[in-house]
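User: I'm putting together a small comparison set for a docking exercise, and I want a reference complex before I start. The sequence is below, and the ligand is adenosine-5'-triphosphate. Could you produce the 3D structure with the ligand included, as structure tokens?
Assistant: Of course. I'll restate your input first, then give the structure tokens for the complex.
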Amino acid sequence: MVGEGSSTTLGHPRIGVLGGTFDPVHIGHLRPAFEVQTALQLDQVRLVPCHLTPHRPQPLRSSRLRASMTGLGIQGLDGFVVDDRELQRDEPSYTHDTLASLRAEHPNAELYFLLGVDSLNGFDTWHRWRDILTLCHLALMRRPGYALNAFGQSLMNEHGATASEARDAACGCIVSIETTELRVSSTAIRALLARGGDPRYLVPDPVRDVLLERTDYQDKHD
Ligand code: ATP
């Protein structure tokens, strides 16, 4: 992917990182992430399933299952990979630590952490959130039902930037991307499965196959 405004993949890759519980992965993760990949011409988008969740109760489904379904969800999607580094650490999966390890591996990369508006609104509760902005840029995805709150707005006032401004800066920009608003959440999908519903079209078909075959999500709505 080399062209106007693009990077050379070898020397200066553009890498997007989407962290999530992915319990399960759904089109509200994938379509906006695909749109960010296109808008920012990302060479790679790394989906990073959370292992030990510091901000929420531990999911009932194992990290391995969530990660393997995430892999099924991105089959055939160019540039998308599952990065299971949080599963290798038996300690809380802090995004800061994940981004620091990615930064160490890719010192010359343009690094973008993708997140929805709901996540930006609570960003000040994240471990070492200010330091996260010294490791990467943020790419903000819209999410229906969520407008920027006062904190999110103040971050945008301070760090909001265009894509080209972000390309010229090492880190610390927040680029807002016009992503399609899909009113989908893992919580709603879990509730649907718990009452025997079919998640067709809310998740990629190979993910749906696993969800319907296994009993992990039945009667376990949380
Ligand atoms: P849950 O319902 O279990 O809380 P979720 O659907 O919010 O899960 P997560 O895996 O927690 O999904 O989200 C990971 C990231 O994806 C977060 O940054 C979140 O803002 C973003 N995200 C999730 N769903 C959407 C959506 N429908 N539109 C835009 N961003 C989303």
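Residues 37 and 45 are 7 Å apart (CA to CA). The beta strands are 14-20, 44-49, 80-82, 110-116, 137-141, 174-177.
User: Thanks, that's exactly what I needed.
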